[in-house]
Structure prediction request, 331 residues.
Amino acid sequence: MTEKKRVLITGAAGFLGSHLCDRFLNEGFEVIAMDNLITGDLKNIAHLFQDQYFQFYHHDVTKFVHVPGKIDYILHFASPASPIDYLKIPIQTLKVGSLGTHNLLGLAKEKNARILIASTSEVYGDPLVHPQTEDYYGNVNTIGPRGVYDEAKRFQESITMAYHRFHGLETRIARIFNTYGPRMRLNDGRVIPAFIGQALRGEDLTVFGDGLQTRSFCYVDDQTEGLFRLLVSDYSLPVNIGNPEEITILDFAEEILRLTKSHQKIVFKPLPKDDPLQRQPDITLARKLLDWEPKMTRQIGMQRTFDYFKGLTKEELYKSEHKDFSAHNRK
Ligand code: UDP
Prediction:
C-alpha cells in the first residue's frame, strides 16, 4: 500500500478550512487540522474526529508551529475573514496573516512541503479595474478599518513570493472571492449569514448604503475544487478563484426574501467605511490554467445554504449577536 500524503490545514475549524478537511480526506489524504478556535468552531469538524486519518491540533499559528513527521502540503487558511471580525480583532488579524504565514513558510521549508496560502479579493481593495484581473495592483487604504486584513494579506503574498524566489519553495497563492455555503458562522456579520439570520428571526433585512454595491458569490464546493486544482498545478503566481456572476446587494436582499418566503422589509443602514463598490473576479486565468469554473447556480447554492441555517437550534439562531473576543484581545 502506498503511503498517504499528509496535508496540514490551518483554520481547519473555520468555514473554508472545514470543507477543505472533508475534501482532502475524501481524496485519500491524511489531514492534520490546526485552529486556535477564535473564529473557528469545533462543530464544523466534529464529524471527522473518528476518522483515523484526521487529527486536530488546538494551536495559534502566530506562535512557532511544530508538527512531527512528514508534511507534503500546507494550506494556510487561518484568519478572521469578515469585516466585523477583523474590526474586533485587528491585531490578531494582522498577526495571523504576517507572523502566522512566516511560521508556516518556515515549516514548509523545513518539511520540503508545498504551501498554498489563502489570499483574497481584498488585496484589490475598492477596485478601480473591473472585473479584477490578477495583474491589477489594487486600491487599498492602508490605515482604514479593512487595512488590517487587506495589508496582512498583501504582506502574506509578498513573503510567500519571497520564499518562492529566494528559497525555491513550492508556493501557490489563491485570491479567494466571496464564498458561501453551509458552516458559515451565523454571527460573523457577512452579508449571507446576516440576511438569512434576519429572515429566520423575522427581522428586517439590513442593506448597507444604497445597496448598489456589487459582489459575486461562489459556492463552497466550487471554491474547494478550484483550490484543489490550484494546489496540484505548477503555477506559483496568484490566481483568482471565485464566481464571476455579479449582483447588487439590494437585488440579493430581494432574492433572499423570495428564497426564505419572508414578508419582512428591507431597511437601509450606513455603508461601512471603505466598503468596496464593486467586486467581480476575472477568472480567465483559472479557466485556462486549471480548466476550472464554478458550476453551482446561486439558486441551488443558496437553497442548500438556507437549509443548513434552518437546521440551527433556536439558541444558536438567537445568540447571533457578534461573538465576544475580549479574552483573546488581552493576549
Ligand atoms: N452588507 C449589507 N448588510 C449586511 C451585511 C453586509 O448590506 O447586513 C453588505 C456590505 O456592506 C458589503 C456586502 O454586503 O457591501 C458584502 O459584505 P460582506 O461583509 O459579506 O463581505 P465583503 O465582501 O464586504 O468583505
